[in-house]
Amino acid sequence: MCDTADSDPATRPACTAPDAPQPNDTPEEARARRLLWNLGYCGHYLHFHSGGRSGRAAIICLLAKNDGQMSQQELGAFFDLKPGSLSEILAKIENAGLIERTRNPEDRRQLFIRLTQKGTEEAALEQERRLRFRQRAFSCLTTEEQEQLVVMLDTIRSHWEGLND
Fold this sequence. Notes:
InterPro entries: ArsR-like_HTH, HTH_MarR-typ, WH-like_DNA-bd_sf, WH_DNA-bd_sf. By secondary structure, the protein is mostly helical.
């Protein structure tokens, strides 16, 4: 890591990468730092290359998987979003011409979200892109290594879920 900007430049060490071992790190701390840095990179990559967890791409793909239509309440529950947050995201998607929002004639409080033709086409392209990524993402690993990674990630996830208690 970097020292503060006001330290003496003559004695200030050069900046190091966040995953680089620090002078006082034990081998365990250095390994944990590198693991967390790499997992963080993977999370960042997935978030920005797959449309985020609840962004435009994820929403139109989910709609496409549900015959192009869902209630706003169903979408909010699926993505665990507050109604106001979801409404803001949907307004942007609607302004792009990808969805239409209509009121349920039987219950005017309920909104239906439906993909437009343009939205259906964009969802199909996004689903193809995601499929290509899934097919290539782990091609650098053997089948055995992929299976080992699945077990390790399941173990880490289970452990981390317990850390939130």
